[in-house]
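Example record

The entry below shows one chain as it appears in the dataset: sequence first, then structure tokens.
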Amino acid sequence: AWRLAVDEPKVGRIVCLFEAYSRPGGRTYTTRLGDYVVDVGAYRFAGDMHLPADLIHEALHLRSVCYDPTCRDDDVRGEVKWPYELPLRKIVDFQGRHLGYGAALDAMLAEFEDAGGRLFLGAQLMAIRRNASAKSWALHVQMNGGADSAEIMSSAVLLNLPRSALMHVDGLELSTSSRWQTLRCQARQFPSTVTEGATTTKVYAIYEDAWWVSRLG
């Protein structure tokens, strides 16, 4: 949506972004607890992870510093086979203070709306129909927690949904015909305690050897 509105603007085209939750970002979520900025989910990126790094540095022009003050990332490189060469980084402000990974999303949304894009939060896609003769799509969206609903017509649709959510969109199987089978191309084996598609939060609460204590005092 950001790329269509900002990088590839066209006269007369309106780009709309519908988000089922009350906030955008999914597993990328930055919040504040008092004076602290806390990343719940994604929180750092390697300089040669081109999708986030190029977007953050080259397109959004956000500042970043090494996540590890030594820029060595010994903890990660010692635990797994690490495919990246450049150090892990975090987004900071001009004073070098942590802004959170969500700062990139905030910047993208600001540019998206400045370019005329429209953001709808709490808007869940319930059904989709394809009108082949009119070369358009009809979307049925529930809004405001199901209190309201809307029927939207669009010339093109891009769905960024987990597979479990796609399976529950009425009319999608009929509208996508043979492509529907690709949603079942890989068997998923989850523990009985995990439901695919459910919101999961990973929080590091306790460190035996936190570098900001052991290295920074």
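Notes for this example: The beta strands are 16-19, 30-33, 36-39, 45-46, 63-66, 88-92, 118-121, 123-131, 136-143, 148-154. The CA atoms of residues 15 and 197 lie 26 Å apart.
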